[in-house]
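Problem: given the chain below (186 residues), write out its structure.
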Amino acid sequence: MDVTNIVAPVVSVITNIGMDHTDVLGDTIEEIAGEKAGIIKPGVPVVTCATQPEAVKVIQEKAQQLQSTVYLAGDQFSYHRLESNENGQSFHFTGPFRDLDVRIRMQGSHQCDNAAAALMVLELLRQFMAFMLDDNDIALGLENAFWAGRFEKVVDEPRIVLDGAHNPEGQKHWPRALERYILTTS
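Solution.
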């Protein structure tokens, strides 16, 4: 039922699994992961940042059925944050092929997760599909990426930040991201 399942990807990406769209996708992590795993196609690599063991199991089982390789955050690739301030955050990405230091404007550890997944995808495209990707272009693309309404500072004085945390997981991360943001900008 997840609309991304209609695409024919060269790399499949499943970021995190949250209790979103439960009226359509199911009301357990396993059911939602099963719907999200519909994007996995035969022989197509899968990049995921899913952390719940039950979601990871569903994704890995589906990938195995379809002979797809899974690149799981924390296993085949990882990152650690280097710096965070009001203008963004930087992190060190470690992948199976190389390491990179990058900077993103978006706030919150979940945005580092997403950027690390994007880097893993780019590395797969570079390694296995001979995509010519300049490191400076990658760095510029990540640093300039912007998502309106996702921890978006709209006014400096008084400081106003908007975030469309729309599921329980996002609402759980919001206070921590806000606290870290306030501490780095005070």
